[in-house]
Amino acid sequence: TDARTKGAEPLGTAVTTRILAQQARADETLGLLKRDSNTQSDSFDARTAELSQLLDRHPVDGAVDALAGWVRSHEEIRRKLAAGDYPGAVTMARDDGPQRSTAQFLRLDAVLRDEITRLRESQHDGIVRAYTALNLLTPGAAALGVLAALAVTAGIWPRLNEYH
């Protein structure tokens, strides 16, 4: 149960969250390639909104701040594209300055990657504990069988002695 509730279920959510982030990054990049401030931004907005909802339900340290920073930098890219400043928008997207899109996305991706790694380890530990416990069932059942046989023998022995 621990492997499922503390590992597999949150792991599925973390993986989904990271996939959404990568899809949103692709939307942002495609919007830049098309030099369009709206077409891909709608997909970006939908994916980041879903990402935000997942992070609200399953918080990950640092992810919410990184997502907020990334959305802010994306809005700046969108404003530059709308104003016709394509080189400025590309600079915002490619530059690795701390408030730029790439840096914010990489920060979010790293936080999610670390969370996935942590959850995989948690799931693995739970599975190992379950496997160890299940391996003890066979000798435990044998020991209980021997104890039951001894208890039956101890209970019948006085009755058998009465017949002698």
Helicity range: over 70%
What low-confidence regions span 5 or more consecutive residues with pLDDT below 50? none
User: Helical element count?
Assistant: 6
Mean pLDDT: 88
Number of strands: 0
* 3D shape: rod-shaped
Beta-strand percentage range = under 5%
Order of helix and strand elements from N to C terminus? HHHHHH
Measure the end-to-end span.
55 Å
The largest pleated sheet is described as: none
Structural class: mainly alpha
Q: What integer value in Å does the Rg equal?
A: 29 Å
Walk me through this protein's architecture.
With 164 residues, this protein is mainly alpha-helical. Helix content is 87%, strand content 0%. The chain has helices at 2-34, 39-57, 63-82, 86-94, 101-135, 137-162. The longest helix has 35 residues, at 101-135. The radius of gyration is 29 Å and the shape is rod-shaped. The mean pLDDT is 88.
Blueprint of the fold:
Layout lengths: L1 H33 L4 H19 L5 H20 L3 H9 L6 H35 L1 H26 L2
Helix pairs in contact: 1-2, 1-5, 2-3, 3-4, 3-5
Summarize the structure.
The chain has 164 residues and is an all-alpha fold.
Structural key phrases:
mainly alpha, 164 residues
